[in-house]
Amino acid sequence: MLAYLRLEVRRTLRDPGFVIGGIAMPVLMYLLFTNLAEITGEWRTGAMVGMAAYGAVGSALSTGGGVAEDRAVGWLRQLRVTPMTPAQVVTGRALTGGVTVLPAIVAVLAAGGLVNGVRLAVWQWAALAVVLWLGSVPFTLLGLGNGYRLTGQTTGVANMVCNLGLAVLGGLWFPLALFPGWLRALSACTPTARFAEVAGSVATGQVPGAAAMLVLAGWLTAFGAYAVWAYRRSGETG
Questions:
Q1: How many domains, the chain?
Q2: Do residues 196 and 49 lie in contact, with contact meaning Cβ atoms separated by under 8 Å?
Q3: Residue 38: φ, ψ to 5°
Q4: Which domain holds residue 205?
Q5: DSSP structure class, residue 62
Q6: Which residues, 6 or more positions from 201, have their beta carbon under 8 angstroms from its beta carbon?
Q7: CA 230, CA 27: separation in Å to the nearest integer?
Q8: Average pLDDT over the chain, rounded to an integer
Q9: DSSP state for residue 179 in the 8-state scheme
Q10: How does DSSP assign 67-104, residue by residue?
Q11: How far is CA 221 from CA 89, 90, 114, 120, 175, in A?
Q12: Is the pLDDT of residue 134 over 90?
């Protein structure tokens, strides 16, 4: 499985679309949004967390694109005749997503610290990176579910809609304080809002709220069940 993981990571990181959309775009958006006008250091930090989360979500979802391509060329059928169990195949793909989200997270955090002058304690930088990394797991499972269930082209569209929709509704681009009351209530139910909330708590030296953790756990369970169901259906349809 380690060889399979190395293969998938190399293939993903060599994709120009992934490098531009998954790594460069969040960094450029962060620097643009935080340097258009005179803003406070608190907003620079909050925007850094939001854009790092946005990059992590986009990179995690993109894992499903590779799965859909594998289905199209018959690679999944080949994997089924190898000694690897279905659980190992899915785990390998999930680990690929876990590895490929790191460049987006590190790039945005580096832009915050080196360009925008965000100052955090060493432990906060490390903890923030770990929380963003672990928090991306539900979105990796969502992307895998889409890839196992949909065609290559449809997977790309579905992941893009999921990424943009969850980013906007979750307040990753703009502060939730700007949302009307009904939209803030809706946002509180989204995994992205809670993802950013947990990461933001680490950046401000606070303990993440129990409600945020429970909502994220619920979405992790739901997306995990979707990925398992989609994988089983992919075996029935080829």
A1: 1
A2: yes
A3: -70, 120
A4: 2-237
A5: T
A6: 207, 208, 209, 212
A7: 33
A8: 85
A9: S
A10: HHHHHHHTHHHHHHTSS--HHHHHHHHHHHHHHHTHHH
A11: 19, 15, 37, 32, 27
A12: yes
End-to-end CA distance of the chain: 22
Q: How far apart are CA 173 and CA 39, in angstroms?
A: 15
Residue type (1 letter), 202: V
| Segments in the chain forming alpha helices (H) | 2-13, 16-18, 25-35, 41-61, 63-73, 75-80, 86-100, 102-110, 122-135, 137-149, 152-169, 181-187, 191-203, 210-237
Maximum distance among all Cα pairs of the chain, rounded to whole angstroms: 59
| Averaged pLDDT for residues 80-109 | 76
At 18-61, the pLDDT tens digits run 667 778 899 999 998 888 766 666 788 999 999 999 999 998 99
Q: Would you state the structure tokens that stand for residue 124, as one six-digit string?
A: 């906060």
Asked if residue 131 lies in contact with residue 56, where contact means CB atoms within 8 angstroms, the answer is no
Angle at 225 between CA 135 and CA 233, to 5 degrees: 130
Both structure tokens of 207:
């303990």
pLDDT exceeds 80 at position 9: no
Question: What pTM, to 2 d.p., does this model score?
Answer: 0.86
